Amino acid sequence: MKSIKILLFLLITFQLGAFAQKKSEEVFVDPDSSGVVANKLLPTTSPLLLFDEQSKKDKKKKDKKKIRKNIYFGEKTRKGRTRQALRDQVQYTIFNYTLEQKTVDPYIRDIYWFDQKDKLVRSKDFDASKGVLLHGPYEKYLNETVIEKGMFYYGTKHGTWLTFDAKSVLIDKGHYYEGWPKDSRTTYYDETNKEIEKITPVEYELKEGNFYHFYENGQAAVIGEYKYGEKVGIWTEYWDTKNTTAIRKREIQYQEEPFTKKFRPYIRAEWDKDGNLIYRNLASN
């Protein structure tokens, strides 16, 4: 009888182990198994950016034609508010938002939106099913003191932004055009036709934001991010597929935060022109 119980115990243990292993295999998805990625990572229409001076002037004239309550840049908005207790202080924001289902510019790093479920203003991973884009004036308060103010244009910082300390002393001033710092630089393959080669985001003479390098056909060749002049996160190179699809060529892992001591960049993974994985750094798993 004792031996039968032992056999039953071993059989049940083996079956549970096999089930758990199968379950684990079903859940795990290898992000490097294929280099083929969504086309949204490789927009084929180059942005106007802040470098198109004539477009800026035309837009400014159009915006000045009508000034109506809660209408900004020709778009009707609604007011929103958040409140958060911080020890013995209260921080709250007053903002406007739009219900317009506008396509978010894939070139811009920071897209600000109001998460209607969690009642928070976020700057990453905009999801139209969960929230709405900030659009119009924005103010952040600490108790009764304004500590930040500016204007949003469909989720992007636009115009002059001011930051103050708790004593209302100005500590920062930024200038933006639809999400791009105004000091950003662009180079062209053909300046007459505005065929962009590289977009380098610059803020206060330091590279800050998303960097793009394009092939001559407008497809992205390299995408990466700068913080305080340093490369951070994963920089991705793409094969030139003539805009038929988006296939990763190589990913290079840089420090997650700037000025990380003793960190050495390394190749995380590589793929061939068909999207087949040909190399992966196992240390990145």
How helix-rich are the residues, as a percent range? 10-25%
Distance between the termini: 47 Å
Helix segment tally:
2
Spell out the helices and strands N to C: HEHEEEEEEEEEEEEEEEEEEEEE
Average pLDDT over all residues: 82
Structural class: mainly beta
The shape, in one word, is: globular
Largest sheet: 9 strands, antiparallel
Number of strands: 22
Low-confidence stretches: 5-12, 22-26
Assembly classification: single chain
Q: What Rg, in angstroms, do the CA atoms define? A: 25 Å
Describe the structure.
- There is one protein chain.
- The chain has 285 residues and is mainly beta.
- The chain has 2 domains: 35-46 and 184-285; 52-182, no CATH class.
- The chain has helices at 2-27, 53-65; strands at 36-37, 71-72, 75-76, 78-86, 89-98, 113-115, 120-122, 131-142, 145-153, 156-164, 170-177, 180-181, 185-190, 195-200, 202-203, 206-207, 209-214, 220-227, 230-238, 246-253, 266-271, 277-280.
- Strands 1, 13, 14, 17, 18, 19, 20, 21 and 22 form a 9-stranded antiparallel β-sheet that branches. Strands 4, 5, 6, 7, 8, 9, 10, 11 and 12 form a 9-stranded antiparallel β-sheet that branches.
- A hairpin with a 2-residue loop joins strand 9 and strand 10 (156-164).
- Keywords: Signal.
- Residues 1-20 form the signal peptide.
Short description:
This protein has 285 residues and is mainly beta. Helices cover 14% and strands 45% of the residues.
List the helices and strands and how they pair.
Layout (H helix, E strand, L loop, with lengths): L1 H26 L8 E2 L15 H13 L5 E2 L2 E2 L1 E9 L2 E10 L14 E3 L4 E3 L8 E12 L2 E9 L2 E9 L5 E8 L2 E2 L3 E6 L4 E6 L1 E2 L2 E2 L1 E6 L5 E8 L2 E9 L7 E8 L12 E6 L5 E4 L5
Antiparallel strand pairs: 1-20, 2-3, 4-5, 5-8, 6-7, 6-8, 8-9, 9-10, 10-11, 11-12, 13-14, 14-17, 15-16, 17-18, 18-19, 19-20, 20-21, 21-22
